[in-house]
Amino acid sequence: MDLGFKGSVAVVTAASKGLGAAIAEELAREGANLVLCSRDQISISVLADRLSKQYGVKTLGLAADVSLVRDIDMLIDHTMSEFGRVDALLCNAGGPKGGSFLSMTDEDWEKAFQTNLMSTVRLIRGFYPHLKVTGGKIVTIASSSVKIPIPGLVLSNTFRAGVAGLMKTLASELGPSGILLNTVSPGRILTDRVVEIDEARAQREGKSLVQVQQEVIQEIPLGRYGQPKELAVFAAFLLSKQNTYVTGSTFFIDGGMVKAL
């Protein structure tokens, strides 16, 4: 299926690795020109250069911390000055630190709030006038914790749920502008972040990483961790011109792990 990305412009945040990088590559494969950002200028420049050469698309790699207002403003300004339009926005950010409620300081809560919730608010608000022109699509990356909280991840459980609530609300508010918004919630997709979570659980429970991963696999009907590309192809559809009627939904890419209705 041709997703209709040729000639379009997609913005992907936290794109240097993991799910962000996988989605960026899928969009490039479909022909989208890309604006990519990461806190690491070298990593994001390397990725942008590779995708441009491999898929023949235009790319712009920028160093930006999405928890900072000035960096989001810079991202928007550079996108419009370089390309003059935006058709798709993928809001992504690194997960907050793990730990229990009583272990978190005010500074921990504030950092997670700015990085994982306010970044989405500011990105959508800032790109809204431009997305309205193109009838653009927005996808946020959350977590299976929006349905079932994950032990030891109180910050993620709180703010990922907030993002899902925001997206559901905006589907109603921005729908008349022709903008479609959805949330993609990964289960156990094999990224560095998921390995870190498993390692923290292994340390907490006095087990090996292999033991923990085998226990996790027992909870997944498909019997394995997912691959980033398996999520990326679905996110690409939601961001594409082929998506004309799906909005306000939260999708679990989890191999059947989440048992709740």
Q: Kindly name the structural category.
A: alpha/beta
Please write the string of helix (H) and strand (E) elements. EHEHEHEHEHEHHHE
Average pLDDT reading: 96
Q: How are the strands of the largest sheet arranged?
A: 3-2-1-4-5-6-7
* Structural domain tally: 2
Here the CATH topology of the largest domain equals: Rossmann fold
State the helical fraction: 40-55%
How many β-strands, per DSSP? Answer: 7
- The CATH superfamily of the largest domain is NAD(P)-binding Rossmann-like Domain
Please, how many helices?
8
- Characterize the overall form: globular
CATH class of the largest domain: Alpha Beta
| Binned strand content | 5-15%
Distance between the termini: 30 Å
Structure description:
Helix 2 links the parallel strand 2 and strand 3 (59-63). It is built from 8 helices and 7 strands; from the N terminus they run E-H-E-H-E-H-E-H-E-H-E-H-H-H-E. The chain folds into 2 domains: 9-187 and 230-242, NAD(P)-binding Rossmann-like Domain (Rossmann fold, 3-Layer(aba) Sandwich), CATH 3.40.50.720; 188-225, no CATH class. It has 261 residues and is an alpha/beta fold. Helix 1 packs across helix 8 (228-238), helix 4 packs parallel to helix 5 and helix 6 crosses helix 7 (209-218). The longest helix has 29 residues, at 106-134.
